[in-house]
């Protein structure tokens, strides 16, 4: 399948499509790791939690089902490709793993989660990333209702130093791809909603203007030099 958008050298390839249609077309060995944040399917925003914190996307009114839980076959397809870090893994039927990552959101509001979990099959001791959700909300414009911090995705990539190409099958507004650019990695992003795909392309183009794709993967020790939102 031909990418909907890509850089001239093909280092960044983006598909506006359902990931179940794209995953089988990826060449064997073309992906070093999967780093993604799928929709959890908990419909929190339909229940009225936190809707005033974002830019009034009007997802449901526009018919955008961004919070629809992925089919289980999606994860089976992903895990055939490469090692994976999957945020919200506790919401899905994934293989048993003793490894996981935690985002401590330093949340002080009782009716919001204090942390989020990522399932992984990367053999690393369980780790915790502490970064205030309030700081995240203050530092960046939210282009997607569940947009993760770039700093969080940079942290995830630090556990994958040998992965030169990262796949995000649920790209959203493109945060994982932005982190890939800042660490000199090639990336493949898939997003089925045209609205968010367009937002992601604009973000990624702006990021490439700020940080042209590096020739080599930046080692984890250098990530702090690139962690500006």
What labels would you give this structure?
17% strand, Rossmann fold, single chain, 229 residues, 9 strands, 23% helix, nine-stranded mixed sheet, 6 helices, alpha/beta, disordered C terminus
Q: Short summary of the structure?
A:
With 229 residues, the chain is an alpha/beta fold.
Task: Describe the protein's architecture and organization.
It is a single chain. By secondary structure, the protein is an alpha/beta fold. It has a single domain, classed as Rossmann fold (3-Layer(aba) Sandwich), CATH 3.40.50.150. 23% of the residues lie in helices and 17% in strands. It has 6 helices and 9 strands; from the N terminus they run ββαβαββββααβαβα. A 9-stranded mixed sheet has the order 1-2-9-8-3-4-6-5-7, covered by helices on one side. It is globular, with a radius of gyration of 16 Å.
Tally of strands: 9
Structural class: alpha/beta
- Overall shape: it is globular
Largest sheet: 9 strands, mixed
Number of domain modules: 1
CATH top level is Alpha Beta
Approximately how much helix is present in the residues?
10-25%
- CATH architecture, by name, is 3-Layer(aba) Sandwich
SSE order, one letter for each helix or strand: EEHEHEEEEHHEHEH
pLDDT averaged over residues: 83
**Poorly predicted runs of 5 or more residues:** 45-64, 215-228
Compute the CA-based radius of gyration: 16 Å
Instruction: Enter the CATH topology name.
Output: Rossmann fold
SSE order and pairing:
Elements: E1 5-6, E2 12-15, H1 19-22, E3 33-36, H2 72-79, E4 84-87, E5 100-104, E6 115-120, E7 127-130, H3 133-139, H4 150-157, E8 165-168, H5 175-182, E9 186-190, H6 194-210
Parallel strand pairs: 2-9, 3-4, 3-8, 5-7, 8-9
Antiparallel strand pairs: 1-2, 4-6, 5-6
Helix pairs in contact: 4-5, 5-6
